[in-house]
Amino acid sequence: MTDLSSIIKAYDVRGVVPDQLSPSVARAIGVAFATAVVRADGATRVVVGHDMRDSGPALVEAFTEGVTATGVDVVRIGLCSTDGLYFASGRLDAPGAMFTASHNPARYNGLKLCRSGARPVGQDTGLAQVRELAEQILDGDGVAAADAPGRVSDVDLLGEYAAFLRDLVDVSDVRPLKVVVDAGNGMAGLTVPAVLGTGAGLPALPLDVVPLYFELDGTFPNHEANPLEPANLVDLQAAVVAHEADLGLAFDGDADRCFVVDERGGAVSPSAITALVGMREAAREQAAGRTPTIIHNLITSRAVPDLLGSGATRLVRTRVGHSFIKQSMAEHDAVFGGEHSAHYYFRDFWFADTGMLAALHVLAALGEQAHPLSALAEMYTPYSASGEINTALGPGADVTAVVDRVRDAYVRAYPDAVVDSLDGMTIAHWDGMHPQWWFNLRASNTEPLLRLNVEAADEDIMIKVRDDVLSLVREEKA
After folding, report:
1. Closest C-alpha among 213, 462, 476, 256 to residue 359
2. How far is CA 477 from CA 196, 414, 472, 474, in A?
3. Residue span of the structural domain in which 87 resides
4. Active site residues
5. What is the CATH number of the domain that holds 394?
6. Got the DSSP string for 53-78?
7. 316, 294 contact by CB (below 8 A)
8. pTM to 2 decimals?
9. Mind listing the pLDDT tens digit for each residue in 215-224?
10. 352: pLDDT strictly greater than 60
């Protein structure tokens, strides 16, 4: 019996091509998605795009065959970023399928699915049914073909995507800025010239863009397209300093995440970007006479609620993970949401994430005033953070026992600390007397790891808490 659980995860499809994700699997997923989600929702067409990986076109062709076999039409938009696919899904009000493995190595590919209006499809919102039906199809229990197959059409939406984003954040009148952009050989090599340049036929902006690794190459010859890893920012940081640029931007492989580097080459925390963009979006809502709601996950910096948590703004704290953010965005009609992983979500973008729109906000905020980005970012980075630290657990390790050991030690040492279990365990000693700190310890959903994030009022306190927790986590059992 076919088992696709190794590649169809909680939120998307990801696997090695062709061993795990072959054209036949892609075709079965196409039939299953069209049957269990698209037609069940009453939709009649699917928008399909792919990133720069060599395996993309063949997988798109097979997936298209599966979808059209059910009588559902396919609109192919070709090479695009993931947020470009979300734009197409929203603009055309159609379900979408994006072939990408984000920052994974070249041998991987994958699939992100959404309903009309870029609404996510995850384990609890249709992906489990897609997997089960695709497994049945691969085992020979097929879905009856439609009397008439769906039609296939091709459309180029890159220009509309670029114009749409520019209309949301106007940077045409900012002071001239020099910006180095590291596309990591990913899809930002296509989208940045269109949005920040004149590649889509739009007027020139007061931006001098210095391109770094704009050649689309799914083998990632220069570095892994994952800016969350500090090693992958080194080239950008050096280029910003060498070119005396005002800032640097780094995108991941499918260009839905954006990371920012200041004029000195220092990495700007995604929490700082969350606070900066959140304040801009909140001010816009307030100017329109509305009370804004901002979403943030539980391991963003304390600076986010500090800066945004006025009586005029509602804050909603969520679990880690884009499905939780997107769900909360829609439930609360939130204007903006941010994650520590540099995913940024906008109500004006169908509650979906787009790194490019966040980048436009940063450019606008910087260009509307005279201070350098390092000074601007300092306002949004008042505390010291550890970053995420992963600890691999041995075979058969009792995760609950490890977490309980840490909880018991800290509750004894700090009886006035606040403990919550929204996502893993968070212990905070912030509202009382010094020292002020918090940490979150949670298990990975996909690997035998415990993830630790610590933040404190100063670096000495952060280091002490970080090292104390790690010693407890890694303590050998008696």
Report:
1. 256
2. 55, 23, 10, 9
3. 13-155
4. 102
5. 3.30.310.50
6. -TTHHHHHHHHHHHHHHTT-EEEEEE
7. yes
8. 0.94
9. 999 999 999 9
10. yes
